[in-house]
Design a protein that fits this description.
The chain has 13 helices and 15 strands. The chain is an alpha+beta fold. Strands 1, 2, 3, 4, 5, 6, 7, 8, 9 and 10 form a ten-stranded antiparallel sheet that branches.
Length: 512
């Protein structure tokens, strides 16, 4: 503030008004770098998610293949073991029949099956029946006495052990190592089908000796393999695809004829054995099946386990791996979304940072201007005080808010001892009110209304800019007001025209 006008630089308001509009337009401009940055972040996120799922699926596939390989290896070993055990049992019967055949050749009339049975306890471990039939296929000796005298077919039609298929002419090769298949009724989870191995008795044409075969190896392997619920162990005849023996829940209601099924055809296509997976035609359950031929016999043994049970560990691991992949994908998406937001708004962020720095610089500059203005104001106040001190009339300076800035002793002494002395910051209305209360402006019924009127008269817009007053000694005084460039007032107390100087001297200190 200056007695002679404001020294503060004026700033063009239009520039300040135009800047927000320009900034708003700049915000709407999307740069190529922003678009490329967003595309880059999107491509990276998509690539990371693709890698996560590719690796997860690869690990799942490898785990599944490893589990499947372990299951197939275990089943193959069990099928191979079952085939070896079945071969051993069949060779035991075959060797026993060879011994019996030789004994018959030595003494046909003195041959007794009952006596030989006691000499071959191993044979009875795998055989339930042993018989000799004449050329009319009538049983003449049997370890089951009730079968003697009956035809082979009729005898086994009346026994719980099942029925024997009609014996066919085997041609010039005779009946060595041939097998006759019959159905054996059974309950529970094991069902077996009788297989008969027969040998000719040469001294008597048409006579045969035969023994049944029941597989103890099948139940042993099934019990020890740990195939789980709905596990399967089975022997299949390769002559016609018939089920010879089966263990497991499939034995409850099995399908016996497998000759036209895909499983049986796959087994025939791979005579050395292998793995087959699918719906087992015996009972319609989805299994992984390992099969192996019985060496030297028209038999295939198979061991199976339910596919879902076998692959359960791999399926559990796969579910956990996919869950982890989903979590990792979501994490990548969150990070990618954050980066996209940052890239998309980086220009506005930089713009805000620049604006903040500019504002800070402006505040710093304004603080400097304010400090300079304070210094100038102090200098102006000192100058005004010095000037006012040299004026013979009472004088005071009020700012644009009509607050007292400075006054000389004569102005300060105009009021005498009435009320408070003029001081810096005192309102013009307060000073006028003080003087009105002292009667300087004559009697007034309404002091407040008089104050308003007097202040308005001192304002430049009133046209006069002065009011008459009475000094402390009763002389006439004129209070004049002059407008300063900044809207403030200079108030001068002087004698009326033609009147002697009426403002009393005062020894009071000037207002600082």
């Amino acid at each position: 503030m200056s007695l002679f006008g404001s020294q503060t630089r004026s700033r063009r308001p239009g520039l300040a008004m135009r800047r927000p509009v320009a900034q708003e337009k700049a915000r709407r401009v999307i740069s190529t770098s922003q678009i490329m940055g967003c595309l880059g972040v999107g491509v990276i996120c998509a690539a990371l998610i693709a890698l996560i799922w590719i690796n997860a699926e690869r690990a799942i596939r490898e785990t599944s293949d490893d589990t499947r390989g372990r299951v197939e290896a275990a089943l193959t070993a069990q099928a191979t073991t079952l085939a070896a055990l079945a071969q051993h049992e069949l060779e035991m019967i075959d060797q026993s029949l060879t011994v019996l055949q030789a004994a018959w050749d030595d003494n046909p009339d003195g041959f007794d099956l009952g006596a030989w049975r006691k000499k071959m306890p191993a044979l009875t471990e795998v055989s339930d029946d042993l018989f000799i039939a004449n050329d009319l296929h009538v049983i003449v000796q049997d370890i089951n006495p009730a079968a003697v005298g009956q035809g082979i077919g009729s005898a086994y039609a009346t026994f719980a052990s099942g029925s024997l298929e009609p014996i066919r002419d085997a041609g010039p090769q005779g009946r060595d190592n041939s097998m006759l298949v019959g159905e054996l009724g059974s309950g529970g989870v094991v069902r077996q089908y009788l297989m008969y191995m027969v040998r000719p008795l040469p001294p008597r044409p048409g006579w045969i000796i035969g023994a049944s075969y029941r597989s103890s190896a099948l139940t042993e392997v099934f019990a020890s393999a740990g195939l789980g619920e709905h596990g399967l162990a089975v022997m299949i005849d390769t002559h016609r695809g018939g089920v010879q023996a089966v263990a497991g829940t499939a034995a409850l209601r099995p399908q016996l004829d497998l000759g036209k099924t895909a499983m049986y055809r796959a087994m025939l296509d791979r005579p050395s054995g292998g793995i087959w997976a699918g719906t087992t035609p015996i009972d319609g359950v989805d299994r992984i099946v390992a099969f192996h031929p019985v060496p030297g016999r028209d038999l295939i043994v198979a061991v199976g386990v339910v596919r879902d049970q076998a692959m359960a560990p791999a399926d559990t691991w796969a579910a956990a791996a996919r869950t982890l992949a989903v979590i990792a994908s979501l994490l990548v998406l969150v990070i990618g979304a954050t980066l996209l937001w940052e890239v998309w708004h980086w220009r506005s962020t930089r713009r805000r940072n620049r604006a903040l720095k500019q504002a800070e610089a402006m505040v710093t500059a304004m603080q400097g201007d304010l400090a300079a203005a304070r210094v100038r104001a102090a200098a102006d106040a000192a100058l005004a005080q010095a000037l006012l001190g040299g004026v013979s009339d009472g004088a005071a300076v009020f700012d644009s808010a009509l607050q007292l800035i400075a006054c000389n002793p004569r102005f300060a002494g105009f009021g005498g001892t009435v009320g408070e002395r003029p001081h810096e910051g005192m309102k013009l209305e307060a000073w006028v009110h003080q003087q009105a209360m002292a009667g300087r402006f004559g009697p007034a019924e309404d002091i407040d209304a008089a104050v308003v009127r007097l202040v308005a008269a001192l304002r430049p817009e009133s046209g006069s800019g002065q009011v008459a007053a009475t000094g402390p000694d009763g002389t006439s005084v004129v209070v004049r007001a002059r407008t300063m460039p900044d809207g403030g007032l200079v108030v001068i107390l002087g004698p009326a025209d033609g009147a002697p100087e009426a403002v009393a001297e005062s020894t009071a200190d000037p207002v600082a």
